[in-house]
């Protein structure tokens, strides 16, 4: 199998390690300022008095970092053609400045599309763990890939 | 009711209009460069040859813009204490440069927490429509709010 993946190259049960990312305080605050300016994503003191127990990244920033790892580790070397949606996003632990996050994509299922014979759908369970081995987020992504050989 | 909302101020069936946002080509490309550098989010020609049919915002950028409207239109004037997760994200139509997106949050259900008597959970159906009145995205968000009067 080459490094480039088409629909046929995904097999249920396979784990694909996507890469790692260390997040800085400046990145957490810059994302929050633009997209999620809640106090506990901007300021240590506000974070400490919140349920998050300290300054923590916006959950959407955490997802965006996962998406970048998914692009670099898989999608940019594939026949990816976008995604219709995502299921069951779970934010399980706060993401702190200095945390190193590692992303894995488990192939859950694959299905060729009857309606569009050039495409197939792959469902992944994405897991993001921190440097202590604790899961900070999971989500189920459905992604469209072109087939190497379209159905007759 | 004041403008500030606690858990008790949400009622199933209510629609809360969160605001609007016009997205530029530069914003679409800047987000994609950082978090989702797939060709159809960066380049008109690549977009035209993809399923998206033209340059289109990353779905995660669309969600981040919704989150900003949710903050400005509701959460920053509320007792919001974060969110454990999101269900059923659906990207229904491409978001193009120049599109004006309007967000609405429908209150689906409310539930006081037994395990944490100072908090309640509100589930929303978020809908983002474009300037033509077409839905471009929906998602179900579960958000924690402090109660004005904690249970005895």
From TrEMBL, chains A, B:
Transmembrane segments: none annotated. InterPro entries: HotDog_dom_sf, MaoC-like_dom, MCH/BMMD. Residues 18-114 form the MaoC-like domain. It holds the Pfam family MaoC_dehydratas. Gene3D superfamilies: Hotdog Thioesterase (3.10.129.10). This is MaoC family dehydratase. It comes from Stappia taiwanensis.
């Amino acid at each position: 199998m080459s490094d480039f993946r088409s629909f046929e190259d995904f097999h249920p049960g396979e784990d694909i390690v996507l890469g790692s990312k260390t997040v800085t305080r400046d990145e957490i605050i810059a994302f929050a300022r633009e997209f999620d300016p809640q106090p506990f994503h901007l300021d240590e003191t506000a974070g400490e008095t919140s349920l998050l127990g300290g300054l923590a990244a916006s959950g959407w920033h955490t997802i965006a970092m996962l998406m970048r790892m998914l692009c670099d580790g898989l999608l940019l070397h594939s026949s990816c053609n976008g995604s219709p949606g995502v299921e069951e996003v779970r934010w399980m632990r706060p993401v702190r400045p200095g945390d190193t996050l590692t992303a894995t994509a488990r192939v859950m299922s694959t299905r060729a599309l009857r309606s569009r014979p050039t495409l197939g759908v792959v469902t992944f369970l994405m897991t993001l763990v921190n440097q202590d081995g604790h899961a900070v987020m999971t989500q189920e992504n459905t992604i469209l890939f072109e087939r190497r050989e379209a159905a007759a």
